[in-house]
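Technical note accompanying the year-one report. For the benefit of new consortium partners, we illustrate the data format agreed upon in the data management plan: each record pairs a sequence with a structure-token string. No post-processing was applied to the example shown here.
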Amino acid sequence: MALSGCYGVLKWIVFFVNLIFWLAGVGVLALSIWLLFDQAVVFMAKGAQDYATGTYILLAAGALMTVIGFLGCCGALRESQCLLGTFFVFLMIILVAEIAAGVWAYMNRADLNKLVQESVRDTVRRDYGKDDVTTKTFDMIQKTLKCCGAESYASWANSAYNGVGEKSPLEIGISALAPTYSVPKSCCADPDSDACEVTRKLGSLGFAASALGIVYTDGCAPKLESLIHQYFTYVFAAGIGIGIIELLGMIFSMLLCCAIRKIEDFKA
């Protein structure tokens, strides 16, 4: 009787652990789809050859987690040693792959920062105003993060938006080339105000006004880097949580397999 009671409890523990794992797989699927289609994320990854590949791998991993979680639930409910054993093997493979991916991402986080900086600088210097999708996306970034330009609002001085050619010898962010220049409306705290319309066309001459909060003074590159670091913290925390669930699923599935075998031996 005691053995039967423990077996029943163990069975439902395995089921609920696998159910949580299945829900985590659905979450990874949703995250990968968001990464594929969110314009702001695609903008930050512009020029990254491995971005699409990594996102599709994440999509495949989410689909695999969903299938394996379903497999584990069925194995627990049907008391199938074959399904539970298959679940254990696939779960171990996924856990090892996740650990390897996490170590790789941590070791290459500096490359991601460099990628973000280059994407923002290239957009400010030559792409803004030429491509409608890029322009709207960067306007959204400036409004949401309350930033202007790459390193500061002065980044716009050397931009194609102000008629400066791509072959300008000056580095982005130096305003000596054009002491008076324009910045986009999205740099203003209130884009529809008269103060914005006047200040955004004054360039370096409008610093006093921008300091009063009319035009954002912070650059978008450092703010995007900070945002990515914050996202990375959430992703790693979620990864650790999923890893713990996977480990529990492996342990309880093996315990349930052993319990099923003992009960079958007892009945024989």
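Partners are asked to follow this layout when depositing records. The CA atoms of residues 192 and 220 lie 21 Å apart.
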